[in-house]
Specification:
- The protein has helices spanning 6-35, 41-81, 87-93, 102-112, 118-127, 143-167, 171-179, 184-195, 197-213, 216-220, 226-235, 240-266, 286-322, 328-359, 363-372, 380-406, 418-428, 431-442, 446-454, 459-470, 472-488, 491-496, 504-514, 521-554; strands at residues 82-83, 282-283.
- The two termini are 33 Å apart.
- It has a two-stranded parallel sheet.
- Residues 1-5, 271-275 and 556-562 have low confidence and may be disordered.
- It is mostly helical and 562 residues long.
Length: 562
């Protein structure tokens, strides 16, 4: 342990344990709510709702996972291993779809691919067909349409991890494969891809978790997944225990995905012996270079350019016809206030957890840090249901105490207020600052703490004068990521927002649900534009990490005596 005393460090450990308890409490409450029973509804759910929801969820996971890999892996290999026109642009542009939430892409493609939309009208004009009855594309409101939409926005998770792995692979293994007669494609399939499998599995798990937690795109496109079933059981049937029972099934699926990911990565570990020399990029010119650029351009166009262009045109048309919506500025301000409050709470809790591990490194503090980050794997709908009972219990206890002591009723202080939503968002995204601050601490030598203590600095002064200034880049990065994720979050916001409160995300959802797509275009465009910030930051960080990894691996080996 650093020079800071054990008693002082234990305060941070107790604080981190309280944060981890706040994360675990909704999950325990979820089980308690489900145990209450849903009366006669559960046999109906078991016979008619769950089989269909599980089937559609499973097919959606398989489809999105497969298509995301088919999109991401060739692009990651080309960007990491080849030199072609536009490579520098596509290196970061392939991350741009992350700025567009899935429900906004679904909302856009419903309009773009409508039988009377621009794509089908252009095709009919090209083919000389006048009536939509004589020619129409398959309906985007389908399982295939949802797989397409979610894959277009989620593939960057696989691309990012796979590209990082391809960049640091040794050239020796690929050269041996080529000398044995393997073509470039066969070398990729037989050598490059197996070596990158652990990284691919990690990215794919994120894709599947995001798919599992989606509610907007799935509902817009006509699917009744587990998430949609939870929402409809709670809101439409007014049966919270039934929704909790479905949520438990969904939570079991989440845990199965996490365990499968860890098992897959543990079973595929590779160690390179000797000096690992990165392979120089293969030069692609002419037709091959154009094909590589075209292949990388397709997901950027489908996942970012088409939705953003459509939103821009629809928003401009709406503003020109009816002016700016009178409610939009207020909804934007509400969104910003909620996201800002959630960011402050999340950063504070993340700093407590990370400091506990820094000041008292042990298995206990490490386990607390992992538990605190568990909320990121829990879908927003599951988290929202689990928070209801603890918050209601807290409000009732405070109200009873105030009635007994002062004869006053406090009512619901947290439940049904913006505070409940802020708390849910903080739990949901706590893993972001915990991971970011721990990475920042990893770059700070423990000797800084010891030197500060030897000079008489107190625990608080050490944190305030040394840790926080040096952690400023990590804190700002985490704050930006949390703010944008909180602003885009839809499931938890739909279920926990107070009556009458509208955010940009719920505004888009409501307009799409009513079929008035153009009225939500400007709100959707604002969400996308704000979401570009962390994507650009992520692209810069990943590029810097790739350059650092390449420099480290290409540096000449030093002998022990040098």
């Amino acid at each position: 342990m650093p020079a800071i005393g054990r008693e002082a460090a234990s305060v941070w450990v107790w604080g981190a344990a309280a944060v981890a308890l706040a994360v675990l409490l909704p999950l325990a409450a979820l089980a308690a709510i489900a145990a209450e029973g849903s009366g006669d509804l559960w046999p109906h759910l078991l016979a008619h709702v769950l089989p269909s929801a599980l089937t559609q969820t499973f097919l959606l996971l398989v489809g999105v996972g497969t298509l995301s890999c088919l999109i991401a892996l060739p692009c990651a290999w080309l960007v990491a291993r080849c030199d072609f026109p536009g490579r520098g642009l596509f290196e970061w542009a392939l991350l741009m779809p992350l700025a567009v939430p899935g429900y906004i892409v679904a909302y856009s493609y419903l309009d773009v691919l409508h039988p009377l939309g621009p794509v089908q009208e252009a095709l009919r004009a090209l083919l000389g067909i006048a009536s939509p009855r004589d020619f129409r594309l398959p309906d985007v409101r389908s399982l295939g349409g949802c797989v397409f939409v979610l894959s277009c926005v989620l593939y960057p998770y696989v691309y990012l991890s796979a590209r990082a792995s391809f960049l640091v692979q040794s050239a020796a293994a690929l050269e041996v494969a080529r000398t044995l007669g393997a073509s470039p494609a066969r070398a990729f399939l037989k050598v490059g891809l197996p070596l990158a499998r652990p990284a691919v599995v990690a990215g794919l798990t994120l894709v599947l978790l995001e798919t599992l937690g989606d509610i907007g795109a799935s509902e817009f496109l006509g699917l009744r997944t587990l998430t949609v079933s939870i929402y409809t059981t709670w809101v439409n049937r007014s049966n919270l225990p039934g929704a909790a029972q479905i949520a438990l099934v969904m939570l079991a699926l989440v845990l199965a995905l996490i365990l499968a990911e860890r098992a897959a990565r543990a079973a595929r570990r590779f160690v390179a012996s000797g000096t690992a020399r990165p392979a120089p990029p293969a030069r692609l010119s002419g037709l091959a270079g154009a094909a590589a650029a075209g292949l990388c351009a397709v997901p950027v166009v489908l996942g970012f350019a088409v939705p953003v262009l459509h939103l821009g045109v629809a928003a401009a048309r709406r503003v020109a016809e009816a002016g700016l919506s009178a409610t939009l500025p207020g909804e934007a301000a509400t969104t910003a206030v909620i996201a800002f409050a959630a960011t402050l709470l999340t950063l504070g809790a993340g700093l407590v957890v990370a400091l506990a591990y820094r000041l008292a490194p042990s298995r206990l503090s490490g386990a607390i840090a992992r538990l605190a980050g568990l909320g990121y794997a829990v879908p927003g709908t599951v988290l929202a249901i689990g928070l209801l009972s603890p918050l209601a219990g807290f409000d009732n206890a405070v109200d009873a105490a105030m009635r007994q002591t002062f004869g006053l009723s406090t009512g619901l202080l947290i439940s049904g207020s913006g505070a409940a939503l802020v708390l849910a968002l903080a739990i949901r995204f706590l893993a972001i600052p915990v991971g970011g601050i721990e990475a920042g601490f990893a770059k700070l030598s423990p000797h800084l703490d010891m030197a500060a203590r030897s000079l008489g600095s107190s625990r608080g002064a050490t944190v305030a004068r040394i840790h926080l200034p040096l952690l400023r880049p990590a804190l700002l990065t985490a704050a930006l990521l949390v703010f944008v994720d909180a602003m885009k979050e839809l499931p938890a916001t739909l279920l926990l927002r107070p009556l009458g409160l509208e955010t940009l995300a719920t505004h888009v959802y409501a307009e799409a649900a009513r079929g008035t797509y153009e009225d939500g275009a400007l709100a959707a465009l604002v969400i996308v534009m704000v979401g570009l910030g962390p994507v650009i930051l992520l692209a810069r960080l990943s590029a810097a990490a790739a350059r650092a990894a390449g420099s480290a691996r290409s540096a000449p080996a030093r002998s022990p005596g040098s």
